[in-house]
Amino acid sequence: MTADGTIAAIATPGGTGAVAVLRISGPAALAVAERAGGWTPGSLDERRATLRSLRDRDGRVLDRVLVTWFAGPRSYTGEDVVEISTHGGRLVVRRVLERLLECGARSAGPGEFTERAFFNGKLDLTQAEAVMDLIHAQSDFALRAAHEQLDGRIGEASEGLRGDLIEVLAQLEAWIDFPEEDIDPETGGALRGRIAGIIGSIEALIRTADQGRILREGLRTVICGRPNAGKSSLLNRLLGSDRAIVCEREGTTRDTIEEMLVVEGVPLRVVDTAGLHATRDEVEGEGIRRTLKAASEADLLLVVVDATLDPAVAMPAELPQGGRRLLVLNKSDLGEHPGWSGREGLRVSSRDGAGFEQLRAAILELAEFGAGDWGEHSVAINARHRECLSAALVALKESDRLLGSGTDAEVVALTLREALDHLGEIAGRVDTEEILGSIFQRFCIGK
Q1: 422 within 8 A of 389, measured Cβ to Cβ
Q2: Longest Cα pair distance anywhere in the chain, in angstroms?
Q3: What is the pTM of this model?
Q4: Which residues have CB under 8 Å from 55's CB, separation 6+?
Q5: How far apart, in Å, do the first and last CA atoms of the chain sit?
């Protein structure tokens, strides 16, 4: 991508609707719009929606449109921007875009409007990513986290750490450059203390990465157990609809079924799986292999058992070790086998819904999204932020080790600068073209 020239794109989703919006941004944005409509130059007032006819090259009216001009730098991109609202038919929108391209604009690439906003200082890189998170938010928590990030909370946190590190580096370099001044006789110990504080803050931010991933992608929750434990019934009850086939015959579910739902603002990607048991059926065996694979990749395992059966019979013989899991004793309405007495687990009935409120609360607690875990949080970093912070953490710990071992201060300064660069990458303070390309190419065209 390049910030040169004037770009245009459709900013609303494809399909038919009441209204569609097209955007133009760049030095010739206003001239392109005036040329496309045959309007007198200078006849549009800034920030005022104006009803006009937009015409094709032969002067025929393509549509009656509302045109709004935002003069740079007081616009989303920081450049001159024109927004054109048309009727939402597929053909009329396509014809209007074609007309804008005829009149001197070029097609925008994915995320190019937001990329220009970043380069023109309207957004930092974390805020640019928040625009995408806001568009794709699937829950209230995700929406709130995206707004917090768009307000600059992650950028502020990373820049605050960067500012603290700049002070540490400045103090160290003053110690290097002017040893005869005796700037601080305890500089080494003082610096290590300040580095330890920055390390603690970075580690706290890194701990929000899992919550950030869950907000963006959903908590991968895999339902597993033996055949006829009621796994599909449990999925249907959670969803509130008959998504999975329920049958008393073994092997009804032969492949994984994945659905998205939101529990108390937290998105869950719930996966129903084939029953775990010994089989010679090739297709059923493949379903069981997929079950074990899904279970090994889960954020949370719901191990569903038939509570009317002896635990030795009801429990699946094979499950991946480790990870968060919850034992769900299903069919509690039919009576519980004495062998479950005193065993921890949630008693539920997929038939009448008993225990499902407690099940949802337990899922949130295990996902660390209870009020005590998330209620006051305002930062949820993404995978890129985590990578930058982890690299900075490695460099800072190495700096601390070098200071403690009496290594030359010049070597310590090099590792501190490395940490500084990694922190700068979070908000885009370091020129990293590869990172920028990766981020903005995931945007939709027109944003």
Answers
A1: yes
A2: 87
A3: 0.71
A4: 36, 37, 38, 61, 62, 99
A5: 14
Tokens of 178: 């002017």
Burial 8-43, CB ≥16 within 10 A → b, else e: bbbbbeeeeeeebbbbbbbebbbbbbbbbbebeeee
Task: Decide if 441 is inside a domain.
Answer: no
H runs (alpha helix) in 178-225: 187-206, 209-217
- Whether residue 318 sits in one domain with residue 225: yes
DSSP letter at 445 equals B
Residue 94: partners with Cβ closer than 8 Å, 6 or more residues away: none
* 226-268: pLDDT as tens digits: 888 988 888 888 888 655 444 444 444 445 688 888 887 788 8
Q: Which of 88, 90, 79, 89 is nearest to 8 (CA)?
A: 79
Torsion of CA 339, 345, 350, 353, to 10 degrees: 120
Are the C-beta atoms of 222 and 274 separated by less than 8 Å? no
Number of domains into which the chain is organized = 3
Instruction: Based on the fold, state whether residues 222 and 351 are members of the same structural domain.
Output: yes
Nearest one of 160, 192, 272, 183 to 225, comparing CA atoms: 272
Domain finish residue from 359, 374, 389: 374
What's the pLDDT tens digit per position in 132-176?
A: 888 888 777 778 788 888 888 898 899 999 999 988 888 887 777
* pLDDT of 289 over the 90 cut: no
- Let me know whether 139 and 284 are in one domain: no
Buried/exposed code over 373-403 (b: 16+ C-beta within 10 A; e: otherwise): ebeebebbbbebbbbbbebbbebbbbbbebb
